[in-house]
Amino acid sequence: MLSTAEHWREDDDKLTFIILANGEGDLPMIGDVNIFLKGDPNDEDFEAEVGVMIAEESYRGKGLALEALRLMLSYVTASPALFTNPSPTLALPNPPFPFPIRSDSLAVRIGQENRASTRLFERLGFVETRGANAFGEKEMRIRQDFLSV
């Protein structure tokens, strides 16, 4: 039986990047960015839910969540031009199945009152597609016109 840490690391329905502080010496973990895969990537209803957290308050508001999301979304969609600004060349390895995922399967759920996260995802081309659910979360997805740029 896998420990919690092993299960988290070996689970094939999510991808997590750890966000470290930039600096000298030890690089403390300040947050993470995640993609949670729901369903079969070949099915129409497949969804890749995006999440980001900057846990250390002193690192918030510095653009780190935006940069981490740009890197993650570029990696999982194999579409660096969609999410990077300016568009540097991003060497993507041949990722294992199910990557690259379809950009139209990306979704995020944000607390209805979380204006900072809403603005963050709007900068990445997400728009609200469903209002607050029973948990007070709204759903956002990539604008279709954003994908055709």
TrEMBL record:
Pfam families: Acetyltransf_3. The keyword Transcription regulation does not apply. Keywords: Acyltransferase, Transferase. Residues 7-127 form the N-acetyltransferase domain. One of its GO terms (molecular function) is N-acetyltransferase activity. InterPro entries: Acyl_CoA_acyltransferase (IPR016181), GNAT_dom (IPR000182), NAT9-like (IPR039135). PANTHER family: ALPHA_BETA-TUBULIN-N-ACETYLTRANSFERASE 9, N-ACETYLTRANSFERASE 9. Belongs to the acetyltransferase family. GNAT subfamily. This is GNAT domain-containing protein.
